[in-house]
Every structure is written in C-alpha cells, then in structure tokens.
Write a structure and sequence with these properties.
With 847 residues, the chain is an all-beta fold. The protein contains one helix and 74 strands.
Length: 847
C-alpha cells in the first residue's frame, strides 16, 4: 500500500470526525482562489478532486515571484497532503511551499540541492476556522523555465475527542477515573492514566492529548474536589491552664473525638493535643477535620557562650546565646546571638520571655592574657639547596607563614621573612618574625640558540643566575653570553659563581652541512595570469617563496614580475636558488554600458575602457570599434576582448537583460458600431503587472465607448516592474444613419422616375411592390405617393422617406373664331387647358 494512503488511514482512525478527502466538499476548487505576485505561473484544477497542478513563474523578469492557491479554512481541524515535483531548473530556484496565514514553509522533505524530480508527503497541519491556507509555487528568478508541482491525497479531518464523566466531582479520599474516547494513544496531565482510578487531593484541570507527531488534539476537564470539614480555633499557642474554642465548618452534622456533637466546643489541654471532628460535608461527603492545639509554659532559660572556657582573648569577638524562650534581653549592652568584643571580665544576665511568662540565667566571661611568642633559626644565611630549622617559643603550638614546619629542617627557596603564630594554653595567640638570607647557587643549565646550526651560521650560548662566568673553549671570560660559529659539532663548558656558591654545566652545539639546490623557469617571460613551469634540481624537499609550493616541478601564475626563491632542504639546512620571471601586464579593461537592462526593441551603447594602446574585439558582433550600439532581442552576454602591445589578451563579459514589452493586442466586442451603439475595447490576454492607459483618460484593461463617428482608440501599457512600454490602436467603424437619396420630387402621370440611394450603407431596401433591394429603383406611380428606403450595414440600419407628386396630364384644346377663312385671311387659333404650349409651327405661345 502506498505510504501516503497509509498516512490517511492512520489519520482517519485517530480522528473519528468529519473527513473531507481530496479537493471536494468544503475544499472543492470553487472555494479556492489564485493570487500571483510577479508571476505568470498557473494553477490547473482540472485534476480535482484527485489533485491540482501548479507551476512557478517564468516571465524573464529576473526577480522573485509567487503563485498562490488559497482558501479560507471553513472548520477548525487538521490538513495533510502529498506532493510530486519536477523542474528543468535547479530545485533551489523554483520550489513548492505551503502556508497558514503569514507563516510560509517549504513542503516537508523537499531538498533544495536535490534532484529535479522529487516527491513526499506533508505531516498534519493544524488550522483554525478563518485561517488562510495556501499552496504556493515560489520562483527566485522567473527565468530558465517553470517548475511544476502536483498536490494530491489532500485530506481534512475534524477530531471528535470526548471525556467521561463530563463534570466530575470527588469527596476527600475518594477515587475517580477519567476516560477519553474518539482518539488513541491518550496522554493525561497530572500523572494519571486513561480510565484508571486516582485519588485527587484538590480541584484542578486535567488535559488529555491524543495523536502523533504534529497531529496532536487536546481536551480538558475540571475535576471538582469537595473539601473536608475544617476547624477554626486559636491562631497561636495557648498557655497552660488556658481554654480554647474550636469551631467546625463546612458540614451539616458534626461528631468530635471528645464525644461532643455541637458545631463548636471548648477545650482545656494540658499539653499539645490534636482534635478531630467527623461529619457530613455540605457536598454530602462523609469526611473529617483536624486541629492541633499547642500549649506553652513559662520558659526555662539557659545561657551559653561561643567560647567553651567562658573566657575571651583580648580584642577577640564573643557570642552569648539565650535559649528556652522566644525573646531575650541581656545586661551589659549585649544582644542575643550578636558577636561583641568584651574588654574586661564580667557576668552577663539574660532574661528570656514568651507569651506565658519570663525567667533569667547568668554566665561569667573572663579576659585571658596574651602569650609572649619568640622566633629563631639555626642558620640565618645559607646557599640555595641547603636546609635550615625554624623554632617558635612561648606557646603550646606554632604555625609558620609561609607553611613551613616548626623545629623540622626544610630548604628555603629564597630570601624571606618568616612569621610564626603561637597559641597559649587558653587559646590566645601572638606572632614573631625571623628572616633567612638565601645565596643563590647557579643551577640553570646553559642553552644554545639554536641548538643546531648549519655550516657558516652563528649560535648564541647563554647562561644565567650567577655573577661570574667562565666559558671553554672561548675567549670571552666572565660574560653570560657568547657567540660561536664552529665548523663541526662542539661541546662548551661554563662555570658559574655567586659569591661562595658555584656550579659547572655543559651545552652541545650541532653543526650540519649545507645542501645543493638549482631552479629554472620555462618560459621566463609571460602575460599576467598565465602559467610558468618551475623545475628544481637538488635536495628531496624544496620550498618556494612566494607562494610556498613544495615540489620538484610545479606551475605558478604570477600577475606581476616576480623573483621566486627556491629554498632546498636536506632535512637540516637550507640553500636558496633565485628564479626571476618577467610578467607583462594583461590589459585592464572594462565595459561601460549605458544601461544593463532595457526593454525589447531598445538599444544599448557599450564602450570599451582600457589603458594603453589596445585592439578591441566585440563578440558576437565580431567588430573592432571602441563603442558599439546593440539592440538585443533577448537577454544576452556581450564579450569584449583586448590585446596590448605585449600580445597579452584580456576578456570581460557584460550581461544585458532584455525585458519583453507588454502585449498590446486590442480587440473590440463588435466589428463595427451603429450610430450611438456602445462597444468594449479591451487588451487581449492582459497581464497583472501591466498598467494600461487609454487616450480616453481611462486606466484599465478595457474601456467602454459609444462613438458617433468612426474613431481610432489608442492604448499604452507600462510594466510596473520593468517599466517597459508598448502601445497599439484600434479603429472602430461607425455606420452613420444619414445617407443621400436622389429622386424627382414630382412627375407627370404615366412617366417613370428613378430613385437612387448612396452613402455608407452596404444595401438598400425600397418599399415598392416586391420590396426591391438595390441602390436604385424605377417607379411609375399613378398618384401622389411616399416611398421609403432602408439603408443597412450589417446590423445597423436607417430609413428615409421620398414623397413624389404625380401631376395629371393636361386636357389641351385648340379653338378658332372662324373655322373657314379666305385665302390670305389671318385666323387666330387659341390653345387651352395647359400652362405652356408648343405649336407645330414652332410657336410657344398660347395664341
């Protein structure tokens, strides 16, 4: 069985309460929310209720970011879950966390330096109702690639721990057992066990804990202890032949050990006596109370001294103590148990008192004489190493300072004044002083510094502790120090004198032969930072300065011209060989960048800096200019190389961070608008860390517009973290309802008129028989009529009216006064029934 499922089964058995398994019920995805801070990480709940998947951020900002999946805890209880993690980056850069309120922790078992795929399970997490619980994917850099973590086996449990009895109480001396249920592995405070009787001695709160690890649940119960009967009586001792009143409390019935049954009794004890009352307490317990009455008597007083001889040496403190009473008063200005220094012999009286009376006692104190102490020595002046005997006199015991024995030979270390403290038979002391002069016998052996030398070197021979010195072999008598340089090992002797005290010692000086050593370097001239091979021929061991190599063949990388000293050793002596190396300087170069961070599409000016005549090469541009202007598309490393007159080359890198510009793709809720129709202009796939500003003055991911004419809208986006900007525009076409119509306003009956509409519409519909759809239509109305035309552009349309007047045809007649005339006679013909006339003669008048 999978270990995670085992954990869930154990938790279910430990907490027999409500269990919400997986992402369902109160923990269904609909009750969670997502919060991202500088992160484009995603949370995918498609796997619910079994699991949810989260990714970390990867927005190339180079800055930390978090992607959270949060819920407000609906019920107090315990949470647990499993996790499976994978990444293309190192686990250190992107990792899963969880948190309760502001406390964030890495998931249990996650290894920052571990594999790119990991898994584990989280022990119980206690949560309270209203806490904010979150899963979090953290990224430290937002680059290289996101990490993914699948959270599964999510479980929530509410413990159901109960205690029986719920309101326990107990009589004095009685037992009770507390039993917890609804869990396992119960642990009680107060040293009790689950369901095992115990005897409380007072009221108190008991706490039971159940569970394991961090899944611990507790519950408390208060045990009421019904107190026994109590007896009030005298608060202090009573005197003999006095009475005391004892009163029983806390009961409903009383029975005294004296045989009385009243709540209070009067007693006359002759000595200390314990009284017991039996009865039923107010809580119904069969119990008892106890009271001890102590009897005091008139005191019997004694006096004692700190000195058992009842005397005191002069100027010595003494303590007098009275006993047998509660307070004491002494004669002679003495305070009980307080040291004082008596000056004369005297008798002191103490009066001791208690609540029942007083008595006295006396003690005599005498002053003892001081002894006369003497000090002597058998030889007051000796050479060092010789013994002497010190003697004290005038007492019965002696102590010397410093601690030497009395009348026993010892060897003094140096000239010193010794003090003896003598004690008399009465315990008094006095002191005397005896001096001893010690002449030093030289004993320190001579030393050679150093004890061994190489051929040709010098050693110093030193002796000390004397006033006179004689060296052999040597030519410098009576000096404590001589310098010698023998060609072979030699033994030297020194005789030291200090007055009559003298001694002779020797010192050996070892002389070693010198080794042979040779060293060479290949090549002997280099650029700084490159290697030189040094070969040493000679002794088995060599040491190089600088930098302290020990090898027969090694490589060094000096930055400046240097001379290496190879010190060869034969185990005792050393010899040096010099290896000079000429180091030509490598160019000291740097790159000055107008900026290290730009937005996509921006340019950066890079300038090479260095001392001396240098030849520069830029990569990947492969150019030799002093200054380069680059426009990187992505984060890029630019490399600058420089070569000086010594043909030495140095290289430096410059990291250019390119932040992407905000996505500024715009869309409209409608492809075009009717006149007066509202529309939403929005940024496609907006980002949380972008501030969008419109030319309308609005700020946000979208705007509401209601254009009356075709309008172009502009939006600019600014990344709040990188400052990168981008802009775009969208033109929203507006169908204007006004369009033009060309038609005659009046026609003659029987004639045809052409009606023509033109303008922004894409189609026109005429209210003529058959509802013609065309820009133009021909009509032949017989009477005055109004035509309607509707212009449409998609869902937009408008209608115009076209009234046409139909004029009737005129009834034209012609009349003549004489229908028959003579040749050459003029006849007048008159037209009627019209307003204008046209004759076949070409005339255009009525007559």
């Amino acid at each position: 069985m999978n270990i995670n499922y085992k954990r869930l089964i154990i938790l279910f058995l430990l907490f027999a309460g409500t269990l919400d398994a997986q992402f369902s019920g109160l923990y269904a995805p609909a009750n969670w929310g997502t919060v991202a801070v500088n992160s484009d990480g995603q949370t995918n709940a498609a796997g619910a209720p079994t699991s949810i998947s989260m990714t970390s951020g990867d927005n190339f900002s180079g800055l930390p970011g978090t992607n959270d999946y949060t819920i407000s805890v609906p019920v107090t209880g315990l949470l647990t879950f499993s996790w499976t993690y994978s990444t293309v980056d190192g686990p250190f850069y992107d990792y899963p966390q969880f948190g309760v309120n502001g406390n964030i922790s890495v998931v249990n078992g996650f290894n920052m330096g571990g594999n790119t795929t990991q898994s584990g399970s989280q022990p119980c997490i206690p949560v309270n109702q209203g806490d904010i619980f979150r899963f979090r994917m953290y990224t430290s850099d937002n680059v290289v690639g996101p990490a993914t973590c699948v959270f599964s086996n999510f479980a929530f449990s509410t413990p159901n721990l109960t205690i029986t009895p719920a309101n326990p109480s107990v009589c004095p001396g009685g037992t009770i057992s507390l039993t917890a249920s609804g869990g396992s592995n119960y642990s009680w405070s107060g040293g009790i066990s689950n369901g095992v009787p115990f005897t409380p001695t007072g009221s108190g709160t008991y706490t039971v804990s159940t569970g394991t690890g961090s899944c611990i649940t507790t519950k408390t119960v208060f045990v009421t202890y019904n107190p026994p009967l109590s007896i009030t009586g005298p608060s202090s001792n009573i005197c003999s032949n006095s009475s005391a009143t004892l009163i029983a409390n806390g009961g409903t019935t009383y029975s005294w050990s004296t045989g009385q049954v009243s709540p209070s009794i009067i007693v006359n004890p002759s000595n200390i006596t314990t009284y017991t009352v039996f009865g039923i307490s107010n809580a119904g317990c069969n119990t008892q109370g106890v009271k001890t009455v102590t009897v005091d008597y008139t005191p019997t007083v004694t006096a004692i001294s700190s000195n058992t001889t009842n005397g005191s040496c002069p100027n010595s403190p003494l303590t007098l103590t009275g006993q047998g009473a509660t307070t004491y008063s002494w004669t002679g200005g003495v305070t009980n148990i307080v040291p004082f220094t008596p000056t004369i012999s005297n008798t002191y009286v103490v009066t001791g008192s208690n609540a029942c009376g007083s008595a006295t006692a006396a003690i005599s104190v005498s002053i003892h004489p001081i002894p006369l102490i003497t000090a002597s020595v058998n030889n007051p002046t000796v050479c060092s190493g010789s013994s002497v005997i010190l003697n004290g006199g005038g007492g019965i015991s002696y102590t010397w300072t410093p601690g030497v024995p009395n009348n026993v030979a010892f060897i003094p270390g140096s000239t010193f004044n010794y003090t003896v403290k003598g004690t008399s038979a009465l315990g008094c002391t006095a002191s005397a002083v005896q001096g001893i002069t010690v002449l030093i016998t030289p004993t320190l052996a001579p030393v050679a510094t150093p004890t061994a030398i190489c051929f040709g070197s010098t050693a110093t021979l030193s002796a000390s502790g004397a006033t006179g010195y004689t060296w052999t072999p040597g030519s410098n008598p009576n000096t404590p120090t001589i310098a010698v340089s023998p060609p072979i090992p030699t033994t030297y002797t020194v005789t030291r004198t200090n007055g009559p005290c003298a001694s002779t010692s020797t010192v050996n000086l070892v002389v070693y032969p010198l080794p042979l050593v040779n060293a060479s370097a290949t090549p002997s001239q280099i650029c700084s930072g490159t290697g030189v091979n040094i070969v040493v021929v000679g002794p088995v061991t060599q040491t190089v300065f600088p930098p302290g190599f020990t090898a027969a063949n090694f490589t060094v990388y000096p930055n400046n011209s240097v001379t290496y000293t190879v010190v060869g050793s034969n185990g005792n002596c050393t010899l040096s060989a010099i290896v000079p190396i000429v180091v030509n300087p490598s160019p000291l170069i740097s790159i000055t960048s107008s900026t290290n961070t730009v937005c996509e599409g921006q340019s950066i000016s890079l300038t090479a800096n260095g001392t001396g005549p240098l030849t520069y090469t830029w990569q990947p541009m492969n150019s030799n200019n002093l200054t380069e202007v680059v426009t990187p598309l992505t984060t890029t490393i630019i490399t600058l190389s420089a070569t000086n007159s010594f043909s030495c080359v140095s290289t430096v890198n410059q990291l250019l961070i390119v932040n992407p510009t905000p996505n500024m793709s715009l869309n409209s809720s409608i492809p075009f608008a009717c006149e007066g129709q509202g529309a939403t202009i929005a940024v496609t796939n907006p980002s949380n860390n972008i501030i969008y500003t419109w030319n309308t003055g609005s700020v946000g991911t979208s705007i509401q517009v209601n254009p009356i004419v075709t309008t172009t809208y502009f939006a600019s986006g600014t990344n709040t973290q990188t400052g990168c900007q981008n802009s775009n525009s969208l033109t929203l076409s507006v169908f204007i309802s006004t369009f033009s119509v060309v038609s005659p306003t009046a026609i003659c009956k029987g004639t045809t008129a052409t009606l023509t509409a033109s303008g922004p519409a894409t189609s026109y519909t005429w209210t003529v028989p058959g509802a013609v759809v065309a820009p133009s239509v021909a009509v032949t109305p017989l009477n005055n009529v109004t035509y309607y035309v509707t212009g449409s552009n998609g869902s937009c349309s408008s209608t115009q009216t076209l009234p046409i007047i139909v004029n009737p045809l005129p009834n034209v007649t012609a009349s003549v006064a004489k229908s028959q005339i003579c040749k050459f006679e003029i006849a007048t013909i008159t037209g009627n029934g019209a307003t204008t006339y046209s004759w076949n003669t070409g005339a255009a008048t009525q007559v």
